[in-house]
């Protein structure tokens, strides 16, 4: 009804409650609250105040860190500017980069002569593919493999001369009756081809590890790059069945015929490199090209040579299309398109200097010098490049400009490691004829002694640290550095006649570093090494090794057992075999899962290793191969004066040019 009052009016104040009324009501609430409620409110208030205090403390810490970083950055900028102006003064250009110095005519001439000599020496070697050694077999599926008679001329001396590439062949008596080829085991391949020594118990153990890893891979990841042994899945990186390729020569050397046939069938029938996928030049060279070359040398099965040529041709644009002598890090296998790494402008020094053994071998096999020329150009460039410090290389290098990144860290670990490894191995590869490599190698080791090598407290363990930003010492050592013991020992026996004093020093260093790497395993509760270890330099601390929470993972890496192998072959000291055995046991105990072997996140807690669900291809390609060789009683199995292992443990022959 219109006009009648059908609602109740309530007087409402239009203004918000005043501060006074609000505090009155809070007091009222407080008064009405029970003791228990009051306690609760008090607790909440206390916690709030504490959190605010902690938060502001944190903020000021972050601010301090940012300030510190900014200061460091400013300092670096000032240094960079100094370098820049220095470069301008000396006629070089540069934007925080160091340029190749202008060579005077005399130096240019000397370099050209050196280059010609290398070229000539290399070409003197008969090219296998042209001369065509009789293929010993046509692949496991196309005929029975024949046993190769042991060439008595090629049996190395039992002790030192085994390692020294004198270039002269010496007729020697067979050092051990066990080495005489015995009756052929139908199930053996690699051993039957290379040697006939019986397997040791420890070798059988490693063969079983390989079998287990292979079975898991075959079941859950066949044709893919890597196995995830826990989730029983896989991942692809290059899309080429990387684990199969990395495993081939290990299966061959271990004489695992059935598994080897499966792998060889994959190469023959399924493997294609015609993939629209960007691959890393270095990783693809050491794993894929390295494995194909090795397999060709071991088996003389033509299929591997064809694949080696195919992958070599697909990788070469990374070298040929660079505007400088420094290759691009990535190349597309189908299109040949190249580019620097996705995460930054620079390549790492290890990746551009650890492709040479493989490409040079490809030239050796095919007679086509384009592969060797391309990688020799890189080596020569790095050899002459300004910015090294006493033979040590900054870890970043730019493909567009061809120079080191100024202020890069100096390390023998990640990003630089195999530069040092390949210096000695490149010298060995052509029968110790190319002095540039040995000169750089000797200078680098001296540089390490001057700047990177130290001793921990209290046990005096020899570590190889880093110079952060090229100047700040850090007692940090990657597990990757553990290759160095092996390389030093290998170098030592080969330089002995020319540099006896240095050789002795290097051998001692090799033993000390390998001992430290052993400690990195032995001192953790799992017996497995962490990825990174810091060494204590503080008199008040009683433990040599400092293992930070984020560095506690173990990726099944090979470097330590690799050095055990070299040290055992070279010194005959059985402790290296025992240490290798301990490592194998630890892998078996903490990394083995029903689906294969897995990387783990925490070597410090045996009850909670936190498996990472990944089996790297190098576990089969390197770690298990080196363990097998370490436990072999047969010194003729890939003797070190005939073979040089690439950084992925694929053996390539030494071509003595003398
Ligand atoms: C391998 O791919 C090679 O040994 C490389 O030189 C370093 N990293 C892994 C193994 O740790």
Brief overview, please?
49% of the residues lie in helices and 8% in strands. It is mainly alpha-helical. It has a three-stranded antiparallel sheet with strand order 3-4-5.
Describe the structure.
- By secondary structure, the protein is mainly α.
- Helices cover 49% and strands 8% of the residues.
- The protein has 21 helices and 18 strands.
- A three-stranded antiparallel β-sheet has the order 3-4-5. A three-stranded antiparallel β-sheet has the order 12-13-14, with no helix packed on it.
- A hairpin with a 4-residue loop joins strand 1 (226-228) and strand 2.
- Helix 7 runs parallel beside helix 9 (281-299), helix 17 runs antiparallel to helix 18 and helix 19 (559-571) packs parallel to helix 21 (617-630).
- The longest helix is centred in the first third of the chain and has 55 residues, at 35-89.
- Mean pLDDT is 81; it is low at 1-21, 58-103 and 121-192.
- Bound molecules: 1-deoxymannojirimycin.
- 1-deoxymannojirimycin is lined by residues 418, 480, 557-558, 618, 622, 647-648.
Topology:
Blueprint: H1 19-32, H2 35-89, H3 105-124, H4 128-131, H5 190-194, H6 201-221, E1 226-228, E2 233-235, H7 242-254, H8 257-269, E3 278-280, H9 281-299, H10 302-315, H11 317-320, E4 330-332, E5 338-339, E6 346-348, H12 349-353, H13 356-366, H14 370-384, E7 396-398, H15 417-429, H16 435-451, E8 453-455, E9 462-464, E10 466-468, E11 472-474, E12 476-478, H17 483-495, H18 500-522, E13 532-535, E14 545-546, H19 559-571, H20 575-590, E15 592-593, E16 596-597, H21 617-630, E17 643-645, E18 651-653
Antiparallel strand pairs: 1-2, 3-4, 4-5, 6-7, 8-9, 10-11, 12-13, 13-14, 15-16, 17-18
Helix pairs in contact: 6-21, 7-8, 7-9, 7-21, 9-10, 9-13, 10-13, 13-14, 15-16, 15-17, 17-18, 17-19, 18-19, 19-20, 19-21
This protein binds 1-deoxymannojirimycin.
């Amino acid at each position: 009804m219109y006009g009648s009052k059908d609602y109740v009016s309530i007087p409402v104040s239009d203004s918000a409650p005043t501060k006074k009324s609000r505090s009155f009501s809070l007091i009222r609430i407080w008064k009405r609250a029970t003791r228990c409620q009051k306690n609760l409110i008090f607790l909440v208030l206390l916690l709030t105040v504490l959190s605010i205090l902690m938060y502001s403390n944190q903020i000021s810490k972050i601010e301090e860190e940012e300030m510190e970083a900014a200061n460091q950055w400013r300092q670096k900028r000032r240094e960079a500017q100094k370098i820049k102006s220095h470069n301008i003064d000396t006629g070089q250009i540069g934007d925080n980069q160091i340029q190749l110095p202008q060579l005077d005519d005399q130096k240019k001439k000397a370099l050209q002569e050196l280059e010609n000599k290398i070229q000539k020496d290399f070409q003197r070697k008969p090219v296998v593919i042209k001369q065509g050694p009789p293929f010993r077999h046509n692949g496991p599926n196309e005929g029975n493999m024949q046993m190769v008679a042991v060439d008595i001329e090629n049996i190395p001396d039992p002790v030192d001369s085994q390692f020294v590439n004198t270039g002269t062949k010496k007729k020697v008596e067979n050092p051990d009756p066990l080495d005489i080829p015995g009756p052929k085991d139908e199930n053996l391949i690699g051993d039957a081809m290379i040697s006939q020594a019986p397997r040791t118990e420890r070798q059988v153990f490693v063969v079983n590890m390989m079998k287990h890893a292979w079975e898991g891979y075959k079941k859950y990841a066949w044709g893919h790059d890597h196995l995830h042994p826990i989730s029983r899945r896989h991942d692809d990186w290059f899309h080429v069945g990387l684990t199969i390729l990395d495993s081939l020569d290990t299966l061959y050397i271990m004489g695992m015929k059935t598994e080897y046939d499966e792998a060889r069938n994959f190469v023959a029938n399924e493997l294609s490199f015609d993939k629209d996928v960007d691959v890393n030049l270095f990783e693809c060279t050491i794993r894929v090209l390295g494995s194909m070359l090795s397999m060709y040398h071991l088996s003389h099965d033509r299929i591997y040579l064809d694949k080696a040529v195919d992958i070599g041709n697909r990788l070469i644009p990374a070298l040929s299309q660079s505007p400088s002598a420094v290759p691009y890090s990535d190349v597309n296998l189908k299109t040949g398109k190249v580019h620097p790494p996705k995460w930054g402008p620079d390549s790492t020094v290890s990746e551009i200097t650890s492709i040479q053994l493989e490409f040079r071998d490809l030239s050796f096999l095919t007679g086509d010098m384009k592969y060797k020329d391309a990688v020799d150009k890189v080596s020569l460039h790095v050899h002459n490049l300004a910015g090294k410090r006493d033979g040590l290389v900054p870890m970043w290098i730019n493909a567009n400009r061809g120079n080191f990144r100024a202020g890069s860290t100096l390390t023998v670990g990640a990003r630089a490691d195999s530069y040092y490894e390949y210096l000695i191995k490149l010298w060995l590869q052509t029968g110790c004829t190319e002095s540039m490599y040995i000169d750089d190698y000797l200078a680098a080791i001296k540089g390490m002694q001057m700047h990177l090598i130290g001793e921990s407290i209290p046990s005096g363990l020899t570590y190889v640290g880093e110079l952060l930003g090229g100047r700040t010492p850090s007692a940090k050592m990657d597990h990757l550095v553990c290759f160095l013991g092996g390389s030093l020992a290998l170098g030592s026996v080969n330089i002995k006649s020319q540099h006896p004093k240095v050789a002795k020093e290097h051998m001692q260093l090799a033993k000390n570093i390998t001992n430290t790497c052993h400690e990195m395993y032995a001192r953790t509760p799992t017996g497995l090494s962490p990825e990174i270890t810091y060494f204590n330099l503080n008199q008040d601390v009683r433990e040599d090794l400092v293992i930070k929470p984020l560095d506690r993972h173990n990726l099944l890496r090979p470097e330590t057992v690799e050095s055990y192998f070299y040290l055992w072959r070279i010194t005959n000291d059985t402790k290296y075999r025992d240490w290798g055995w301990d490592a194998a046991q630890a892998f078996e105990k903490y990394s083995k899962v029903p689906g294969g072997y897995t990387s783990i996140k925490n070597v410090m807690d045996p009850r909670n290793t936190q498996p990472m669900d990944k089996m790297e291809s190098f576990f089969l390609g390197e770690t298990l191969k080196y363990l097998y060789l370490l436990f072999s009683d047969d010194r003729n199995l890939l003797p070190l004066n005939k073979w040089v292992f690439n950084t992925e443990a694929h053996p390539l022959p030494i071509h003595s040019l003398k």
